């Protein structure tokens, strides 16, 4: 109760406004705030996604298992670092191969490093 009374006594006179009040009265605060929130929520994750995609594109190598945009699963047979295309083997025998753009590869499918044991000794 005493703290509230002290705060009430320290309030600015009615004719004067504090710096914070003058800043909040500015009509540009709301649009600038909306743009800032939009930038943080949209462009931040987009930049992160592009960086991850670029890292994946540069790390593609021979014998990596990949999935294309169209859902085709295959294994990379040849992938020159300076080429925009890679050759995929898409069947078990290795006789069917297709050439796709690097940008058409959605993800690299890998085997888990540590496979969990199915044996339960509970």
From TrEMBL:
<dbReference type="Pfam" id="PF02699">
    <property type="entry name" value="YajC"/>
</dbReference>
<dbReference type="GO" id="GO:0015031">
    <property type="term" value="P:protein transport"/>
</dbReference>
<dbReference type="InterPro" id="IPR003849">
    <property type="entry name" value="Preprotein_translocase_YajC"/>
</dbReference>
<keyword id="KW-0813">Transport</keyword>
<comment type="similarity">
    <text>Belongs to the YajC family.</text>
</comment>
<keyword id="KW-0472">Membrane</keyword>
<dbReference type="GO" id="GO:0005886">
    <property type="term" value="C:plasma membrane"/>
</dbReference>
<keyword id="KW-0812">Transmembrane</keyword>
<keyword id="KW-1133">Transmembrane helix</keyword>
<keyword id="KW-0811">Translocation</keyword>
<keyword id="KW-1003">Cell membrane</keyword>
<protein>
    <recommendedName>
        <fullName>Sec translocon accessory complex subunit YajC</fullName>
    </recommendedName>
</protein>
<keyword id="KW-0653">Protein transport</keyword>
<feature type="transmembrane region" description="Helical">
    <location>
        <begin position="27"/>
        <end position="45"/>
    </location>
</feature>
């Amino acid at each position: 109760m005493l703290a509230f009374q002290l705060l009430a006594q320290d309030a600015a006179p009615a004719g004067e406004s504090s710096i914070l009040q003058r800043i909040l009265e500015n009509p540009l605060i709301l649009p600038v705030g909306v743009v800032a929130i939009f930038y943080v929520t949209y462009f931040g994750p987009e930049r992160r996604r592009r960086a991850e995609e670029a890292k994946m594109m540069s790390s593609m190598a021979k014998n990596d298992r990949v999935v294309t945009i169209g859902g085709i699963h295959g294994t990379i047979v040849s992938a020159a670092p300076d080429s925009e295309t890679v050759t995929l083997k898409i069947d078990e025998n290795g006789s069917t191969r297709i050439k796709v753009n690097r940008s058409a590869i959605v993800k690299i499918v890998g085997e888990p490093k540590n496979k969990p044991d199915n044996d339960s000794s509970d």
